């Protein structure tokens, strides 16, 4: 594949107490065959000086050490601001629990060159431990229900038919975003902290007149939920996961003109969740969902920051 030096990419990886995943991710990035990129590692105040350890193992990375955990949105925004200041033409968000194919970035860049008005391009994402199964082939937005649907979710790769490349939203697990789209639409909304910030950002970038597309020739592999899994007497997912999921779902509904059908639909969904947790004796998760509903409805929404 012939490459052009006109497209420069800052790959932003956020680490939070996930050094083993991040080491594997950075090792796979060393094999990338597209030449014009740099890696910005943002450490979200991990324990045991993980950022410093990773810098020693991978001296080529640019390390930004946060003094507190800013979440997915805040951590990535720190890296995005750095990349924009340095003049990169594109920013690639990449989860630390991923492995990439050597040509994944080149395929994304090729798509970007061919489609200059595309603001976001997502690769095909497969499960790391079952690479014959799709984790995400992009996202669809059902406006009447304010519902974000993952395309290809857990479908066998061999049976999946890629019907169209244009998407409604892309996952923050891996997305190539143009500088122009960010300058016009703004940064990730840090009020979300984590979950649904990628959907909100995608919809905002589309509203600014940019496309969101899938490049299925670009392939990465995802562990899925590595930072959210922690064994307890209430299962592997932390109650905080449910809180942010529920709260941010209502943030998203309200931000999309407060769709009444979406409000009713999601309130019904989460009520069923609470009934389930009640009968299973998972009271911390029940409380988390209830608090998420309260805060999702009641907290005033804040606009996303812009750069500069």
From TrEMBL:
Pfam families according to UniProt: Glyco_tranf_2_3
InterPro entries tied to this protein: Nucleotide-diphossugar_trans (IPR029044)
Keywords for the protein's UniProt record, in alphabetical order: Glycosyltransferase, Transferase
Name of the protein in question: Uncharacterized protein
Gene3D superfamilies associated with the record: Spore Coat Polysaccharide Biosynthesis Protein SpsA, Chain A
GO terms of molecular function: glycosyltransferase activity
Family in the record: Belongs to the glycosyltransferase 2 family.
């Amino acid at each position: 594949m012939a490459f052009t030096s006109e497209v420069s990419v800052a790959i932003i990886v956020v680490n939070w107490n996930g050094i083993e995943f991040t080491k594997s991710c950075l090792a796979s990035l060393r094999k990338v065959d597209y030449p014009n990129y740099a890696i910005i590692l943002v450490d979200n105040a991990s324990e045991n000086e993980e950022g410093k350890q990773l810098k020693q193992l991978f001296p080529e990375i640019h390390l930004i050490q946060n003094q507190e955990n800013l979440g997915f949105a805040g951590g990535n925004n720190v890296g995005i601001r750095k990349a924009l200041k340095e003049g990169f033409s594109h920013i690639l968000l990449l989860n630390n629990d991923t492995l990439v194919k050597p040509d994944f970035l080149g395929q994304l860049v090729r798509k970007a060159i061919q489609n200059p008005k595309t603001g976001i391009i997502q690769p095909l994402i497969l499960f790391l431990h079952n690479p014959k199964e799709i984790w995400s082939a992009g996202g669809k937005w059902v406006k009447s229900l304010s519902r974000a649907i993952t395309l290809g979710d857990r479908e066998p790769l061999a049976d999946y038919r890629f019907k169209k490349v244009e998407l409604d939203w892309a996952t923050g697990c891996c997305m190539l975003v143009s500088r122009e789209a960010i300058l016009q639409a703004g940064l990730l909304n840090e009020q979300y902290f984590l979950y649904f910030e990628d959907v909100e950002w995608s919809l905002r970038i589309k509203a600014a007149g940019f496309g969101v597309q899938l490049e299925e020739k670009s392939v990465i592999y995802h562990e899925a939920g590595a930072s959210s899994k922690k064994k307890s007497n209430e299962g592997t997912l932390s109650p905080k996961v449910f809180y942010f999921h529920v709260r941010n779902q209502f943030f998203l509904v309200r931000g999309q003109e407060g769709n009444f059908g979406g409000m009713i639909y999601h309130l019904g969904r989460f009520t069923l969740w609470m009934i389930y947790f009640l009968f299973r004796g998972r009271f911390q998760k029940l409380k988390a969902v209830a608090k998420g509903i309260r805060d999702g409805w009641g907290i005033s929404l804040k606009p996303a920051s812009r750069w500069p």
